[in-house]
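2024-03-11 09:14:02 INFO receiving multi-entity request
2024-03-11 09:14:02 INFO entity count = two
2024-03-11 09:14:03 INFO echoing inputs for audit
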Amino acid sequence: MTASELNLEIRKKRSFLCVGLDVDMARIPAHLHKEANPVFAFNRAIIDATADLAIAYKPNLAFYEAMGTDGMKQLEMTVDYIRSKDPNLFIIADAKRGDIGNTAEQYARAFFLHFDFDAITLSPYMGRDSIEPFLQFPGKWAIVLALTSNPGASDFQLLNVDQDQPLYEHVLMQAVSWGTVDNLMFVVGATRSDHFTSIRRIAPEHFLLVPGIGAQGGSMEMVMEHGKSSRGGLLINNSRGILYAGNGIDFAEKAREAAQRMLTGFAL
Amino acid sequence: MTASELNLEIRKKRSFLCVGLDVDMARIPAHLHKEANPVFAFNRAIIDATADLAIAYKPNLAFYEAMGTDGMKQLEMTVDYIRSKDPNLFIIADAKRGDIGNTAEQYARAFFLHFDFDAITLSPYMGRDSIEPFLQFPGKWAIVLALTSNPGASDFQLLNVDQDQPLYEHVLMQAVSWGTVDNLMFVVGATRSDHFTSIRRIAPEHFLLVPGIGAQGGSMEMVMEHGKSSRGGLLINNSRGILYAGNGIDFAEKAREAAQRMLTGFAL
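2024-03-11 09:21:47 INFO inference complete, emitting structure
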């Protein structure tokens, strides 16, 4: 998928919404526990209820890995289900990988070939050769952590390096030269909206994947006001606020209502 | 496992060896391809041939994830086999994870509870709250990337931050306050032996996990000379140099010979 195609979906649906599938067995409605594949059954209902509102889905690998091979099977089923539901939905592996070249190649094969993800989140700490193998797959994307939404972001990402620029700006400045607006995005937390202006100076047209709305306290309005590119360029994630909006028989309806609230105020 | 117990194994076996299980189906001997679980069959033979020489084994998750659920099953079999072979062998998940607190907890559960790993490698980019959940499991370890062996390490890890200290030293200085010598190690590449002295100034007694010997060009002698703590404190990894020392029927014997060569020059 290209950036233009993704921006077209955003205009068509009037939505920046990415639904994070951080599915925790302990939090899914009780009536699903008797299903053979409860996490998949939960995801399928969430996807059915939100597919016309969402641009992207973002399974968080940790939650599936915690369940071992059974979790990985339900992840495969989930990715296949999204793909069959609507081929224009963008599917992100929230995996935050980052390793040397030959290992990065294996991860790229895992996420882009074994699974049919469109994109994977990556940590930049190991530098260029840990990112580049992901940029060799036509139509696939690397999403590099820049400034994250959690408190620990200030431990290193906001440290000033040479010439008084925070580390995350160096990450952005270097990374933009590794790929294009069609295969490289950045993660910027919604809790960091005071930094969006300087981020857009370095990467004016790159897509930003923005977590941290809802449970983490970021503001949707601030992100839309300061984070957009000229054509859209945002995927705004909400996980727990949608998945666990309800926990009864009507959880999917509640999820849909929560997703609809994320679309109010949309403007391009 | 405590640092003392690990140092005791090192003295008993006169070895710092960690065998990296980065097992690539394309590189395992042809005669194993007909096995039901060829990667596990390969690993079992390597483990049988090296268990009396090695302190630790380090499966690289990427190689197993690239094979999907089938790979994860063979990873489970491998971890269980090492555990049953000798309970004093230390098992590291080379996963380089790093995510916000609630996700980090899921990864910790995945690697420490679902799998029975002793340790997991982690990227520090997201800071303290991405590491701490791994330090809550008695006897389990977080292994934080400090200075890696790949060329891209110079993109960010060697950038000078406030007071002219490279970023990786800031990572070390902060991280040592998050855990203890019994639950926190650091990754330092063997190709960076000129930095070992400053690393040992900041973390004199912490274990260092050292990749980059062999294929990546690091020197075993330099690591042993400059990297040791007063009691040992090193796990020196070799993956491809051992796994693929031979590729015929006698691959396990060749692997043993390569492992034995890693032990020459051992001194404490």
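2024-03-11 09:21:48 INFO post-check: Residues 76 and 208 of chain A are 26 Å apart (CA to CA).
2024-03-11 09:21:48 INFO post-check: The two ends of chain A are 21 Å apart (CA to CA).
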